[in-house]
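Long-time lurker. I teach an intro course on protein structure, and each term I like to show students one example going from raw sequence to a predicted 3D structure in token notation. This year I'd like something fresh instead of my usual example. Would anyone be willing to generate the tokens for the chain below so I can use it in lecture? Attribution to the forum is fine with me.
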Amino acid sequence: MTLEELPLAPVSTRPDEATDGYVVALDAAGVPTGLGRAAPPGSPAPGAGGAGGGGLHPAVLLPAGLSLHELLTGEAVTLLPLNPFGAVVIDASGILGVLEHPTIARHATGADVPAGRTRSDLAHPEDAVLAGVVGVPVARVLCRCGQLNQVTLYDPDYPPTCPSDDGHPLDPQER
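-- Reply from a regular --
Happy to contribute to a lecture. Here you go:
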């Protein structure tokens, strides 16, 4: 089952106009950089500095053609904790919706997920398999220094290095 076949929550690309559901912030190229809940009527939009709907968390981007099994058994699963709501599912036409964490949990019940291998230096047999999807799952994370980062693997105990001038560890910031 691919991610586009799972139930996806609707999402708006206009944080200042949305009043319910999810909103994403886009960069100049139209690629999502943040995902959050829309602000209730009468409160500031997400990312506007108010309490309203809360800030925008890093946008985790998953290709629509990715299978649930590939999501759960690959390094993409390490990106999911970066956003408390879920991940943005995208295809060539744009944003399809938000794959919420409860939806992933419901469909993953009983799935055979191998033990994690993110901290191992040993080769894994799956490393020699050609990728079955065109897109690569990524997370777009704004560091506290203001640098926008794109990561394909995230371990909070060993965060990647931010490409800023001083090379400090990536420290995700809510917007």
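Some talking points for your students: The first helix runs from residue 68 to 73. Residues 48-53, 117-134 have pLDDT under 50 and may be disordered.
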